[in-house]
TrEMBL record:
Residues 5-80 form the Bacterial transglutaminase-like N-terminal domain. This is Transglutaminase. It comes from Klebsiella michiganensis. Residues 123-191 form the Transglutaminase-like domain. It comes from the Bacteria.
């Protein structure tokens, strides 16, 4: 199956920004399950360096050192996806130890209240169902509230406020999972 992707990201700033760095993981990689037949990144004028991250993903580091109020990035191309049921085997990058995803970060550290919340809703004998329930309860406890938090606020900060945005929900859920010794990470992208 062929997927045609045209993805546009636009950042707008209220005031002029003099310098910015963007880490872009917008280029899919070919694997047993997918083959990239065409791919283009359209970036603003600046310095973009391509490299590969620890998981084998193409990473572009875009540095803009001229004043700007907007950044527009377009990723487009064609991806061939293997049919359901095709035996493709595991990719080497998929064999990375899940223990890597138990590591806390300053933004995803679980404090006492987060640990208690996670333990209240988690049932090891029904892992998937109870994690879905935990997330649903988290959204009830922390309603989506734009402007309630700042980008540098931790999971504990947002949980204590009992409101936040998508980033806060993600940080708290990661903190809950890791406190329960369930490997978890944040992944953004398309799922077909």
């Amino acid at each position: 199956m062929k997927l045609v992707i045209d993805h546009l990201t636009r950042y707008g700033y209220d005031e002029e920004v003099k310098f910015s760095t963007q880490y872009l993981r917008l280029t899919p990689r070919s694997s047993g399950r997918q083959k990239i037949t065409a791919w283009t990144l359209t970036l603003p004028d600046g310095s973009a360096v391509a490299t590969t991250d620890a998981w084998g993903n193409v990473l572009h580091v875009l540095t803009l050192d001229n004043p700007h109020k907007e950044i527009t990035i377009r990723a487009s191309g064609i991806v061939d996806i293997a049919e359901e049921g095709d035996d493709i085997g595991a990719e080497p990058q998929e064999l990375l130890s899940p223990l890597v995803f138990l590591r806390c970060t300053p933004l995803t550290r679980a404090d006492g209240p987060i640990r208690e919340f996670a333990q209240r809703w988690y049932q090891p004998e029904a892992q998937e169902e109870s994690l879905n329930r935990l997330m649903a309860e988290l959204l009830l406890r922390m309603p989506y509230s734009p402007g309630a938090t700042q980008v540098q606020d931790s999971a504990a900060d947002a949980f204590a406020r009992a409101k936040g945005v998508c980033q806060d929900h993600t940080h708290v859920f990661l903190a809950c999972c890791r406190a329960l010794e369930i490997p978890a990470r944040y992944v953004s992208g398309y799922v077909y």
